[in-house]
Amino acid sequence: MRKIMIVSSAIAIFGVSLLFYLAKTSKPNFVPLNEIDSTYIGKTISTSGRIISVNYNKGNIFLTIYDKNSSINVPIFSNVAKYLSVNLKKGQKIIVSGIVDEYKGKLQIIPRKASDIKVVE
Amino acid sequence: MIEYFLAVFSGTFVGILTGLLPGMNINNLLPFFLIFTFLKPEVLAIFIASVAISQLLTNFFPSIFLGAPSSETSISVLPGHKLLLEGRGYEALKLCLSGATFSIIFSLILVFILSPFFKDFYHTLRPYVFYLILFVSLFMIFLEKQPKKILFSLLIFLLSGFIGITTLNSPLSSSNILFPMLSGFFGLSTLIISLKEESFLPKQKIDEELKIKKSDFFKSSLLGSIFGLIVGFLPAVGVSQAAVMAQTLAKLGDPRNFLVTIGAISVANEIFSLNSLYLVNNPRSGASVAIQRILPEISFQDFLTIVASILISSSLTTAFILCFAKRFYKLLLKVNYSILNIVMILFLSFLVFIFKGLIGLLVFFTCGAVGILTAELNIKRTHCMGCLLVPSMIFFYGATNNVLSFLFG
Questions:
Q1: Which chain B residues are closer than 8 Å to A16 by Cβ?
Q2: Nearest CA in chain A to B359
Q3: Mind listing the pLDDT tens digit for each residue in B312-366?
């Protein structure tokens, strides 16, 4: 095997392993709610806002949070909602982490696990 | 009226200056531009559109001549570098820029023909995008023909896809992370391979002739405009993914056709992003997000004014960059090409560190290593586009959260 192939394979394996470790242990970047736009679709971020609406439906919880004249939907699906230890209510301020997606033309942030939702006030 | 023209000229000037610097994305500049609140909203929107388009077109220059691409032009390095080493670097640049200019006309025609259907376009198309990307990916891999090469291609595609998910979707994701990733796959690997092979830069032919049939040129430019439409309307699909889809589906094996298509997609993407903003108030590019903030209610007249500014700005940039390239190549010939490659590797590493820090450097060198490995395995480096195609595929399948949970807990 050629030397360059061995070196590039070694760098690739080391780099990918380190990236994997960092992705597993890093916390998502915090983005203020009013700065989230469609360029964030597909990215994992963290944001905060006050709950202005809560709907419970078949084990799923649909929140809308609001901050600085902007709002975003936070669907918490049943596989995550069943592990929530807090009761989410209107007026609570939360920090939520998750992946940004779009549903019916509106942006939403989808948490992956119960610990992605933290009530701060 | 005069202020509109001033906005176009100054925007073009800023776009050319920043476009010569790889990695300087319009998104880095937007927070600064949004401070210019003393300008009329329409004037500021025109300025931003002119910077965006001019920067995009200027990016082709460092991408082709120096192997130092931005995230939007990264895929042009491979065919561009091939023509540069044949002494046709100027022609490569001209092909990209001409494709871009013609796509403005094609895109406007498409806008007027398809406007009544645009509102439903996204919802109609979205369920099929997963299958389209899957088909393109498999098609691209099986084009290698020999079983051993197909296996290697699949491995590189999946490895690149894993890097893509890790850097674009995981908590490591951040704005402009595409720059170190794509510069590594396509820029760094090209520069190191040139260095290893002791390539030299032949005398460049500076003639106005484009060695491409007129029919092929128009076909490639129209194809680029159509794929630009897809990028302009869909989230999570960028210029590079669209270029690979167009290349694979239309079998654009010839580098000239591919360069025309890449140029066309880049500009058409901006036009359709604006159109998406006007029709469904849903911006798709960094520039159109900024324009939405300045002009929350964009009218048809605003849309046409901004498109006119794009037309003027792209014409000015094309004329300037072609003149600049004619003079620059003489300077390039005087420099030892190996030394130039080393300088460019150091320069790109420096820019990556400035923009994205140590994580950026890790991504840059890892992707560079995968790019070199791909070349050493004698398979096409476009398989590295798995870094964008795999995340897009899982996004449109609606499985991003599941995949992230599986990989990162």
A1: 159, 162-163, 166, 366
A2: A19
A3: 999 999 999 999 988 887 888 788 888 888 998 998 899 899 988 999 999 999 9
Q: How far apart are CA B42 and CA B303, in angstroms?
A: 10
B172 contacts A26? CB cut-off 8 A:
yes
**Using CA of residue B40, residue A41, residue B386, residue A10, what is the dihedral sign?**
positive
Residue owning tokens 């004014």: B305
Dihedral (CA of B338, B344, B350, B355) sign: negative
Concatenate the DSSP letters of all residues of B30-75 into one string.
HHHHTT-TTS-HHHHHHHHHHHHHHHHHHTHHHHHHHS---TTTGG
> By the 8 A CB rule, do A50 and A89 touch?
no
Name the maximum alpha-carbon separation found in chain B: 63
Measured between beta carbons, the chain B residues lying within 8 angstroms of A20 are: 162, 166, 407
The burial of A57, by beta-carbon neighbours within 10 Å (0-12 exposed, 13-18 middle, 19 or more buried), is given as: exposed
- Alpha carbon of residue B294 to chain centroid: 25
Instruction: Provide the ipTM.
Output: 0.87
